[in-house]
Structure formats: structure tokens, C-alpha cells
């Protein structure tokens, strides 16, 4: 079974996912990194050159493959839930955790970042609020569990995820 993390840019999918995989001693896979390996350039360059829709097509193909992988932690791109196929594959093939944060907290974390194409706009906080209002229902629909990430450290979030997985029976206690 795969364990996938969904959430807005900056919610900690890569950071928390990497630690979670280490804790469970299973491979960690980041779909953004897999996409970059496939397109041979950064996602930002690809967005500029080919546009978002073409990026989403490639993301859908890559997620179809990665969500079928068993026994790994999969960190997804922030917009992975936009396509119905992705929501369905992630939810039905494993356990999905939504790392939920406020747009204000995410803006604070990413205000100096230049790698996330959707935030390279004049008013990134407003953009983050728009992304939140469109995507929050989609993250909820895709996820089996929702975790508020505002205050807890990365290590605490990992403990909370392991506990949720154990309680749901997805993770035998002996694996922890
Ligand atoms: N729980 C947390 N508390 C404080 N800082 C955090 C937490 N989780 C992540 N961060 C920090 O926020 C930044 C963004 O985290 P990360 O790259 O893991 O987000 P992401 O969800 O993978 O984003 P993207 O969707 O753009 O790939 C990093 O600098 C990371 O160290
Ligand atoms: O929120 C988004 O739509 C994105 C988030 C990143 O993880 C990348 O997948 C890409 O920059 C698009
Ligand atoms: Mg990431």
C-alpha cells in the first residue's frame, strides 16, 4: 500500500514525507522530482515553455504510475488533486493524508521561494488564498485523514501520521 501526502505548496509534503518514509523504512518518492526527471528541466521552466495544461497531462501520467507503487511514501505536487483521475487513483490505491495549513502560514514559509511557478505573481498571498479556496475541498475529498500543520514540528507530524495509520489498521504496530 502507498501512503500519499496532499496539500498546498509549502504544506510540508516533501519535508514530512521524507521523514515519514525514513521512520517506516520504506522508499520516499516525490512526484515533482519524478516529473522533472521525465521532462528534463525544472517544473518552472516547463510551465513557462509549455503551459500548465501540458504540465497537468504529464503529472496525471506520472501519478497513475507512482500511485500504483506499493509500500512507499508518495509526496504529490500541490495541484495533483485538480484532476479527477488523480483524486480517484490516490484515494483508492492507498492511504492519503492532507497536510492542511492556512494560506497566511504558507505565504510566510514560501515568501522568498522562486521555484514555485504559481506563486511568482505580484500578490502571492492573495494567490495562496485563491488556491486554498479552490483546492481545500479537493484535498478533503482525496484524503483519508486531515492534519493541521500550523504549529507541530515535522517530527510531531510524522508521529501523528504513524498513529493515524496504526489506528486505521493500515499499519501494523510491529512496523513502527
Ligand atoms: N511543519 C512544519 N513546520 C515548519 N516549517 C515547515 C513544516 N513543514 C515544512 N516546513 C518548511 O516549509 C517549506 C516548504 O516545505 P515543503 O517543500 O516540504 O512543502 P511541499 O508541500 O513539498 O511544497 P510543494 O507542493 O511546493 O512541493 C520548507 O522550507 C520546509 O522546511
Ligand atoms: O500547486 C501547484 O499547482 C504546483 C505545485 C508544485 O508542487 C508543482 O507540482 C507545480 O509547481 C504546481
Ligand atoms: Mg514538495
Automatic annotation (TrEMBL):
PROSITE patterns: SHIKIMATE_KINASE. It is an enzyme of class 2 (transferase). Its cofactor is Mg(2+). ATP binds at residues 10-15, 116. One of its GO terms (molecular function) is shikimate kinase activity. Pathway: Metabolic intermediate biosynthesis; chorismate biosynthesis; chorismate from D-erythrose 4-phosphate and phosphoenolpyruvate: step 5/7. It catalyses: shikimate + ATP = 3-phosphoshikimate + ADP + H(+). Keywords: Amino-acid biosynthesis, Aromatic amino acid biosynthesis, ATP-binding, Cytoplasm, Kinase, Magnesium, Metal-binding, Nucleotide-binding, Transferase. Binds 1 Mg(2+) ion per subunit. Substrate binds at residues 32, 56, 78, 135. InterPro entries: P-loop_NTPase (IPR027417), Shikimate/glucono_kinase (IPR031322), Shikimate_kinase/TSH1 (IPR000623), Shikimate_kinase_CS (IPR023000). It is found in: Cytoplasm. Mg(2+) binds at residue 14. The keyword Lipid biosynthesis does not apply. Its EC number is 2.7.1.71. Monomer. Belongs to the shikimate kinase family. Catalyzes the specific phosphorylation of the 3-hydroxyl group of shikimic acid using ATP as a cosubstrate. HAMAP family: Shikimate_kinase. This is Shikimate kinase. It comes from Rhodoferax mekongensis. The gene is aroK.
